[in-house]
Write a structure and sequence with these properties.
Three copies of one chain form a homotrimer. Chain A has about 290 residues and is α/β, with parallel strands linked by helices. The first copy, chain A, has a domain at about 10-165: NADP-dependent oxidoreductase domain (TIM Barrel). In chain A, about 45% of the residues lie in helices and about 10% in strands. Chain A has an eight-stranded parallel barrel. In chain A, strands 4-5 form a two-stranded antiparallel sheet. In chain A, helix 9 (about 215-230) runs antiparallel to helix 12 and helix 10 (about 235-245) crosses helix 11. Chain A is globular and about 50 Å long. The model of chain A has no long low-confidence stretch (mean pLDDT about 95). At the A-B interface, helix 8 and helix 12 of A face strand 4, strand 5 and helix 6 of B. Chains A, B, C: Pfam families: Aldo_ket_red. Chains A, B, C: This is Oxidoreductase.
C-alpha cells in the first residue's frame, strides 16, 4: 500500500467550486498542512475535468508534488465527452483503455506518476491476466506505483488479486449502506490484510441533512445524540463509525469546506465503543442485531 | 473437535422447568446414561442464569464432570442484566469480553474448563487477530479446549478460521430454514472437514405444532407420513433429515422431556434415502428441485 | 479439459424431430463436418430416450465415434421412467447412481467411454469424497475421460473441485439471465482457468421470439439493431455476446436446423466491442451499468 494519509481528500466536487487555480492550490495546501496528503481522483470526475483543474493548481507550486499521494481511477467510459468516446456508459478494463486513461491522467495532473491506480468498477468482461499485464507494464515504467480496485465484491476481488496484488478496495460504506459489513467484502479484505478506502462516508451528506427517510432520520438522531454526549459534531461520529472497523478504512472526505475537514480529522482521535457503534448500525438497519 | 456426543443436549430452556438442583442433576444423569454427554450452553441463556443452574446441579456430583463435554458461547451482550452490562443488545468479540465471559462461565458451571467455546454471532467488528490471541491464551491456560463459532456465513468463517482453527459452526437448519444448504455455509464446512452443530433442529417445535403456515403444514404432513411408513415419530424423521447431511451435523436437542430425547436418539439409527430427504426439502420449499 | 469443439451440439430436442436413425446420423455428420464435433447429452433427455436414439444412429457408422466428443450428465432422477425409478424428482450424487448412470449411458450411446461426465445439479447432499472416489474409479476403467459439473455456484464448485478437478461448469447464461456474471460463478471459473459451457444460449429461443416481456423485447430489439449493423443474424449477435466473455465459454447449440447452427458458427469470427456487449447487457437488465 502506498503511504496514504489516514483521511483522503476527495476531488469529486472540485469543479463545482468556481475556484481559480490559486484558490485550488490554497485548498490543496490547507489539506496537506492538516495531514491530508492523499487526493482521490478519477478520470471522469467533473465530466473528465477535475484532474486538469488539480494539475493546473499543482503547476503553480510543483515542489508540493513530493508531499502528495495521488490516486486516480479508470475503467468507466461515459458518453458525451471526448475522453469517454462512448455512445452509452460502459466499463472498459482493456489494457489499451487502462494505459490510455493513466497517460491522460498523468498529463492532466501534470505529474509523472500515480501513487495508486484503481479500477473503478467490477467489469463483467474483466480479463484478469490482461489487467495484470497492463498494470505490470505501467509499474515497470513508473507510471503507477500501486494498483487496487473500487466497488468489487469478494469473488471479483479474489479473481483479480490472484493475478495482480490489489492494495485496496474503495467501497461505499456508511450507516445507510451496511452490506460490505455482511456480504464478505470486508471479511475478504481483513483476511488478506488490506485496508479499504471508503467513498461517500457521509452518504453524500444525507446522514446530516436532506434525506428525510425514516432510516436517515434515525441515523441523524443517533449521531446527534452521541455527538452531544462526546462533545463532537455528528459528522465526526459518522467518521468514527467507519474508522472503528478492524480493517482500518481510509475515508475519502468529500467536503471542500475546512470545517468539514476538521470534523473528519477529529474522528481520528475518537474511538467508539462497540455499543455506540451498534446504536448507529441499528439506526440504519431499523432493527436490533440478531 | 472435542469428542462431542452425536446428539447434544440444549440447556436453553433449563431455567423454565422450575426444577430443584437434584432434579436438574437427574436430567443431566439421564442424558448422560442415554449417551448424550455434551451440553450446549451460552453465557446469556435464561437471562444469564442457566450456567449457574447447571453448575449447582453438577456440584451435587462433581465426578460426573469427567463424563461430560461442556460447550458455551459468548459475544452477545444483553441489556437489563449485570453480566451483559449493556444499554442495547450488541455484539462484543473483544479479547476482554471473551476472557471475562469464559471466566464467568467457568465459575457458574463450577468447572475448570470448557470443552468448546463458540463465538455466538458474526460480529461485524470482529478483529480476527485479536480473537485468535484471546483464544490462544485461554487454551494455554486450559480454560477452553477448543474453539468455534455459531451463525457464521462462509466468508466470516473463512476469515476467522485462517486466524484460529474453528472446529465447528453451530447453525440453524431445519426444513423451514434451508439456506445453509445452498448459500455455501455447509459447503465451506465440508470442504474443511468440520462438523456443524445444529440449533433449533425442530424449528423450536414449529415442525410439530403451533405453526399453521402452509410450509409448516406441508412439512408436518410429510414428516408424519414418512414416520408412519418407517414406524417412528415425526420428530425422529426431522432429526434423521439433519443427520443425513454428509457433514455429519450434531443436532442440539432442545426438549427436556425424555420422550423427546428418545425420539431424537432413534434418528441415529435411521438413514433416510435421498428421495425421502427431498420430499421433506420440497415440503419446506413449496417446490420441487430444479 | 477434453478437446471439445468451440460450439457444442445439444441433443435435448433430438427425440422431438421424428427422425429415422439414418436422418439422425445425417445430422451428426453435418454437425461434425461443420466443426461441431462435441455433443451434449444427459441421461434424462427425452425422458431417458435421447442417448439411445443417438447411439442407434452412431451404430450405422461406428468409425465416426473417433471424431466425436460425447458429453453426458447424471445426478437427477425423474419419476415415471424405469431408469429414474423415482416417486418424485430428486438429486442423487451417490457413487452407485453415478456408476449406474454412466454404464447405462455407455450402453445407450453404444460407446466405450464418455469424453466428459457432468454432475447435473448441485445436490445439497453431495458428499465430495464419495463423488471423487466414484469419478476416480470410472476414470481408471476408462469409462469417463474427464469430469465436471453443471449449474454449480462458486462455493459448491470449490468444494467438489478440491476433491476432484472439475474441468467445466455448464451454466445457463444469456442476456435475460446475467447472474453468473455477477455472483462469482464466472469469477471462480476464470480464477481457476476453467472454461464454462453455456446451456440455453438463446434462452430457449425466447431471445428471438415468443417472450413478449419488456426485457425480452428490449434484448430482441438490440440484437436486431446490432445484427443489422454488423450484417449478421440476431442469433449470431447473441452467441457473440457469450463468446466475448474472457472465460471462453462453449455454448451448447440447441437448434437442430442447419440455418441455426450456421448462425451460431458465424459468431466464432465476430468479436463484439465492450460497448455493444454492454448495450445487450443493459437491454436485459433494464438499466445502465452502475
Amino acid at each position: 500500500m502506498p503511504n496514504l494519509s489516514p483521511l483522503v481528500a476527495g476531488t469529486w466536487r472540485l469543479h463545482e467550486q468556481g475556484w481559480s487555480a490559486a484558490e485550488r492550490l490554497r485548498w490543496i495546501e490547507r489539506c496537506t498542512d492538516l495531514g491530508v496528503t492523499s487526493f482521490d481522483h478519477a478520470d471522469l470526475y467533473g465530466g473528465y475535468t477535475v484532474e486538469a483543474l488539480f494539475g493546473e493548481a499543482l503547476a503553480l507550486r510543483p515542489a508540493l508534488r513530493e508531499r502528495l499521494q495521488l490516486v486516480s481511477k479508470c475503467g468507466i467510459r461515459l458518453p458525451g465527452h471526448a475522453r469517454g468516446a462512448a455512445r452509452i456508459k460502459h466499463y472498459d478494463s482493456s489494457a489499451a483503455h487502462i494505459r490510455a486513461s493513466v497517460e491522460h491522467s498523468l498529463r492532466a495532473l501534470r505529474t509523472d506518476r500515480l501513487d495508486l491506480l484503481l479500477l473503478h468498477r467490477p467489469d463483467p468482461l474483466l480479463d484478469a491476466a490482461e489487467v495484470a499485464d497492463a498494470v505490470a507494464a505501467l509499474q515497470r515504467e513508473g507510471k503507477i506505483l500501486a494498483f487496487g480496485v473500487s466497488n468489487f465484491g469478494p469473488q471479483a476481488f479474489e479473481l483479480l488479486d490472484a493475478a495482480t496484488p490489489l492494495v485496496t478496495n474503495q467501497i461505499e460504506l456508511h450507516p445507510l449502506r451496511r452490506e460490505p459489513l455482511h456480504d464478505g467484502t470486508l471479511d475478504a479484505l481483513q483476511r488478506r490484510g488490506r485496508r479499504p478506502m471508503v467513498w461517500s462516508p457521509l452518504a453524500g451528506g444525507r446522514l446530516l441533512a436532506g434525506d428525510e427517510s425514516p432510516a436517515a432520520q434515525r441515523v441523524r438522531w443517533v449521531l446527534g445524540a452521541l455527538g452531544a454526549q462526546l462533545g463532537v459534531a455528528p459528522a465526526t461520529v459518522a467518521y468514527a463509525w467507519l474508522l472503528r472497523h478492524p480493517t482500518h478504512p481510509r475515508p475519502v472526505v468529500g467536503t471542500m469546506r475546512e470545517a468539514g475537514l476538521q470534523q473528519a480529522l477529529a474522528a481520528l482521535s475518537l474511538r467508539l465503543d462497540a455499543e455506540a457503534w451498534t446504536e448507529i448500525w441499528q439506526a440504519g438497519a431499523g432493527q436490533e442485531v440478531a
